[in-house]
Amino acid sequence: MGSQEESLSHRGLESMAEFAQMAALMKVFGNIYNKEKNPDGIISLGVAENSLMHKELAAYYENKIQVSPFSLTYGEGPGGSSILRNALASLYNGKFSPTFEVKPEHIFVGSGVSGVLDLLCHSIADEGEAILIGRPIYTGFSHDLFGRSKLKLVPVSLKGVDPMSVEAVKFYEKELQIQKNHGVKVRGMILCNPHNPLGKCYTPEAIKAYASFCNDHNIHFISDEIYALSIYSTPSNTTAAPFTSIFAVPGLLDLIQPHLVHVLYGMSKDFCANGLRMGCLISPWNKPLIPAVFSVGVFQWPSSLADIAWRTILTDTTFLDDFIEKNQKKLGEHYQILVNWFKKMDIPYVHGSNAGFFIWVDLTRYLEKIKLPEGDDGKVPGGKTNLPWAPAGAQKRDAILWDKMLNGGVYVGTSEMFFGEDHGWYRFSFSTNTEELELGLSRMEKVLKGVENDGVVAGLDGLKLEEGAKN
Ligand SMILES: Cc1ncc(COP(=O)(O)O)c(C=O)c1O
């Protein structure tokens, strides 16, 4: 008789281990707040979901989604219907000023950007090869790169240099050399523009500098533009760099071999529809790539209902423009609610965000209030990041603070989840409805004031969710 583990492939066992973090989060999501059904549940200010337009979108879809007999068939095959790919090409041509015409045949549609990035990784790199990304990093990239294709995410430490600056590129250069010296082949880099978790956009100058870097080393330049239309302005923030798609950067194609340039875009963020699982790859110049992606893309064949949902809104330009405008206005208002709270609490945060649904926040002063038990080495077993430069105990204190917040009924993303340079930083999302946002912040205030005033002498309390997920 063999063990259950022995019944799995080596790949399967690696995936099982990788699932641990997601499993912990799924417990949080299994006990999520609902005013009527689960008022003691956790308020999520941690997930990048924008519910500010959910009511409008749900009402719109109630009248608009029509299931035809054709949508019950395999249709045109994987990769998205031609109507949807035409509509996406029009979106890019109409709203992002590309320096060339984006065509439907440049586009492959799959189940969400995570899924499409997995397909891209599978097609451009072999197991063990690396992709560079500057810290802090959207947490899901590590899974998207490694989950199936087993690529290595190499976080690039920027040592306090502005990640949006041209200067940051030299750290990529350095990291690439380190990987080379260790015999690891770097295949590409991802620029998250607009940036998650910093909520900022890259200037054309910075994008050009990254393009030259990629070209010099013959590596892929993947531009994740999933927040491209989730841009807002606030009275306190009028000078932030606007969003520029990599396709709109003048002179870019003189700097990089075009076949190395790819864009990722999706429905989850700008269309407030994470649950519909739609995303696309736009790769205009790499001829062999699209069939390679199609081949594995059979496993990510989007549902025709989701295809209809995306193309319906994209082709209804009056509704679309109104939707984008209202969404951006609401994002600006909610950004301000969160910033006002930081000011009231005297909490430092990264200023000047103008994109996405979140703010990167410095809670390090609360870590100092947490005393570790005698003899505790301050490390968290299975911790995602090992930061050799972190002060002793910071990782454990960070985990304890996060635990306190969860037990206080509110979830936010930790620095460790986002490969931050330092412990004690958190990503707060502001795109939940106003009542929930305010309740979440009042719960958070109670937790942080308790930590500040009374201190904490403890180990991990243990997630109350361990007792069993509700809802
Ligand atoms: C930068 C970025 N890329 C990709 C994704 C994944 O998007 P999707 O829901 O389309 O898989 C997210 C989701 O949070 C994200 O923030």
Automatic annotation (TrEMBL):
The keyword Translocase does not apply. It comes from Dactylellina haptotyla (strain CBS 200.50) (Nematode-trapping fungus). InterPro entries: Aminotransferase_I/II_large, Ethylene_sulfur-biosynth, PyrdxlP-dep_Trfase, PyrdxlP-dep_Trfase_major, PyrdxlP-dep_Trfase_small. SUPFAM superfamilies: PLP-dependent transferases (SSF53383). Keywords: Pyridoxal phosphate. GO terms for biological process: amino acid metabolic process. It comes from the Eukaryota. This is Aminotransferase class I/classII large domain-containing protein. Residues 79-441 form the Aminotransferase class I/classII large domain. GO terms for molecular function: pyridoxal phosphate binding; transaminase activity.
